[in-house]
DNA sequence: ACTCGTTATTTCTTTGTAAATATAACGATA
DNA sequence: TATCGTTATATTTACAAAGAAATAACGAGT
């Protein structure tokens, strides 16, 4: 059997996407880069797209996941909140366990 | 908590998609309609897209999932093979159990 | 006041994908 | 051999999503 099962998970709220794999990737890049523009560059993503994702996340969450500051020393920057960190680990844990679950189920099938 | 977790699963082989939710839907429509064009119409899908999906599935499977005949009484038609039936039920079972798994995992989180 | 690198936002352009359209091929039946 | 409804395929059109580019705003430090 040379087939592989794949999956994608995401979290929605009343009207639309809240968290998905791309958004989690962006959160992690913001954390490691300390800036939205650098995070976007590190993911080969346009700044605008990154900003849209961040804005959408912050607007649809109870608390912001990212805080950004403009101006000042270094021009500003962006950082992940404690709530944001919690979301990253929660998402990655459930995603990983989903993969494991699917792999084991799929192996049982013997297609 | 007004968040909901969602997922999509699919099966790939060496270079590309083999089975996904849209393809399974199409297989089921072919089964109930007996024709590719009627199946496409019932799903509000263009004939061309339906044909592409069917062709891709048949080409990447060990055995065809759909057999189509052209000409003859009634103009022809399409039908699901036993192998195709097996794929439908296998996919739907694993998909359902994945949803249940995710829902229960997500409930544990209390975001 | 001026500089700096960043965030924030608008507008325009491009591009990739889906949809519409048209047409050929097919073969049992009459 | 003419008809019929389907499968099979190429070509064109339309549209939406992504990207590029340009510009404004910001505020600590000098």
UniProtKB/TrEMBL annotation, chains A, B:
> Which spans of this chain does the record mark as coiled coil?
none
Q: Which Gene Ontology MF annotations are present?
A: DNA-binding transcription factor activity
What InterPro entries does this protein map onto?
A: LysR_HTH_N, Molybdate_resp_trans_reg, WH-like_DNA-bd_sf, WH_DNA-bd_sf
Pfam short name (any one):
HTH_1
> Residue ranges of the HTH lysR-type domain?
24-85
Q: What is this protein called?
A: LysR family transcriptional regulator
Species per Swiss-Prot/TrEMBL record: Leptobacterium flavescens
């Amino acid at each position: 059997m040379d087939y592989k099962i794949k999956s994608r998970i995401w979290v929605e709220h009343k009207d639309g996407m809240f968290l998905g794999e791309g958004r989690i990737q962006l959160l992690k890049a913001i954390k490691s880069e300390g800036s939205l523009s650098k995070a976007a560059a590190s993911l080969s993503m346009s700044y605008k797209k990154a900003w849209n994702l961040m804005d959408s996340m912050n607007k649809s969450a109870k608390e912001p996941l990212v805080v950004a500051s403009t101006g000042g020393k270094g021009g500003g920057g962006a950082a992940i909140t404690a709530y944001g960190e919690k979301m990253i680990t929660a998402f990655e844990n459930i995603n990983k366990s989903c993969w494991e679950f699917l792999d084991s189920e799929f192996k049982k099938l013997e297609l």
